[in-house]
Amino acid sequence: MKEQPLSTRREKGVAVITMDNPPVNALSFALRERLDAALRELAADPAVQAIVLTGTGRGFCAGADITEFGKAPRSPKTIEIIETIESCPKPVLAALHGQTLGGGLELALACHERTAAPGTRLALPEVKLGLIPGAGGTQRLPRVIGATAALEMIVNASALGSAEARDVGLVAEVADDPVAAAMEFARDLAARGAELPRTRDRTSSDDRQAFEAKAESLLRRARGAEAVAAAVEAVRWSLELPFDEALQREQEAFQRLRDGQQSKAMRHLFFAERAATKVPDVDLRRAQSVNRAAVIGAGTMGVGISMSFADAGIPVTLVETSTESLERGLGNVRKLYASAHSRGRLDEADMKSRLSLIHGTTDLGAVGDADLIIEAVFEDLGVKQGLFARLDEIAKPGAVLASNTSYLNIDKIADATTRPDAVIGTHFFSPAHVMRLLEIVRGRRTGTNTIATVIAAAQRLNKQPVVVGDCPGFVGNRILRQRHEQGEQLLLEGALPEQVDRAVMRFGFPMGPFAMLDMAGLDVGYRIRRSQGYDLAIADAICERGWLGQKTGRGFYSYREGARTPLPDPEVEQLIVATSKRLGITRRSIGDDEIVERLLFPMANEGARILEEGIARRASDIDVIYVHGYGFPAWRGGLMRYVDQIGLRDVARRLRAFAERSGDQRLEPAPLLARLAEQDSSFAAWSHAQAESSTTDKGQAV
Ligand code: 3H9
Question: What is the DSSP letter of 419?
Answer without folding.
Answer: -
